[in-house]
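User: tokens in, sequence out, please.
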């Protein structure tokens, strides 16, 4: 009787394997491996920027059971840090990891999807992207470029930059050559600076050789490793990039060809790796800042004087009026951000801000 029951159980197991497991294995084996290439604006090793696409590709590989593989090329390989939008658009790469405000020369509306001077904080901006209509507006803006754009990791509030000399008046700024991208660069140009954008690999050399007098990069977690403080020890607090969101760019035609499963895997991996980069960068800056007084006593932390902040705000408002008059898409995005920020800021004020103000 016992042996009959054993035989019966074995038979049931064999039937179950044939009926349920084998078709899955066969389907998985039959599924063609998808191989994609991603171009980064960054060099090979620039944590946490380079960790976001790396982590995303690892998650995609694991979740797809090795059936969706993404190779990552740094700018050392493709040699075109600011050409990745075009490369994805033309299908030379399937994806890229970059920042939307680098495309302001091609399309001014795309500038507003990274961060804006005096704009939203990271929490406010993520709320806008995912629940306040931001994702839909971003897609609308990228439609004519035939790519999809997704959040790619946030730096949180950035520092205002490194200056060789202390800045006390508006006159101290006039004539300075500074690396500062995005809308903030245009604000600084209005204040009399000569503004440029330079790829990350050339930043230190440009400052050392005097091609530029000042620069902003990110925050202590990334800046101190670059050594800027050795040449320009005045480190200003930020106003210009309160929530810099990097981006994943995806060729739309290639995305549409993916199976529903791979679309979901890729989307989930991008979202998770983007949020993880924000946390990683917060950690890196906390660690670096904790050591700043003991390890780097020559760094002098400053905040721009009220006169300069006022001039920056005014220049910002004038430029916004000028640019939005020319680009309805930019206006639509900025109007949406402004309305959302008004709502979200009241909450920030009575929650995080109220807490911090009494607990520093
Ligand atoms: Ca920056």
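Assistant: Sequence out:
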């Amino acid at each position: 009787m016992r042996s009959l029951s054993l035989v019966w159980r074995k038979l049931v197991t064999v039937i179950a394997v044939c009926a349920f497991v084998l078709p899955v294995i066969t389907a998985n084996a039959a599924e063609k491996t998808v191989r994609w290439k991603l171009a980064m604006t960054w060099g090979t090793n620039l944590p946490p920027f380079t960790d976001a696409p790396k982590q995303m590709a690892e998650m995609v590989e694991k979740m797809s059971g090795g059936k969706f593989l993404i190779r990552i090329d740094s700018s050392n390989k493709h040699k075109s840090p600011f050409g990745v939008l075009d490369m994805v658009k033309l299908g030379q790469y399937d994806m890229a990891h970059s920042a939307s405000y680098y495309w302001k020369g091609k399309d001014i509306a795309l500038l507003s999807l990274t961060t804006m001077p005096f704009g939203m904080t990271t929490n406010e901006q993520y709320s806008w992207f995912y629940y306040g209509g931001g994702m839909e507006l971003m897609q609308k803006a990228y439609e004519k470029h035939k790519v999809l754009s997704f959040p790619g990791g946030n730096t949180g509030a950035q520092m205002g930059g490194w200056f060789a000399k202390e800045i006390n008046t508006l006159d101290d700024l006039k004539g300075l050559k500074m690396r500062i991208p995005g809308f903030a660069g245009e604000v600084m140009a209005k204040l009399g600076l000569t503004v440029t954008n330079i790829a990350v690999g050339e930043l230190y050399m440009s400052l050392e050789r005097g091609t530029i007098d000042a620069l902003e990069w990110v925050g202590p977690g990334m800046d101190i490793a670059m050594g800027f403080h050795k040449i320009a020890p005045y480190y200003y607090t930020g106003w210009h990039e309160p929530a810099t969101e990097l981006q994943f760019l995806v060729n739309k035609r290639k995305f549409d060809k993916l199976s529903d499963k791979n679309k979901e895997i890729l989307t989930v991996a991008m979202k998770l790796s983007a949020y993880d980069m924000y946390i990683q960068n917060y950690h890196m800056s906390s660690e670096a800042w904790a050591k700043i007084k003991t390890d780097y006593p020559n760094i002098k932390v400053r905040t721009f004087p009220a006169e300069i902040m006022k001039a920056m705000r005014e220049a910002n408002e004038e430029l916004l009026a000028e640019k939005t008059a020319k680009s309805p898409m930019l206006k639509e995005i900025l109007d949406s951000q402004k309305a959302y920020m008004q709502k979200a800021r009241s909450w920030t004020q009575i929650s995080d801000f109220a807490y911090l103000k009494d607990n520093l």
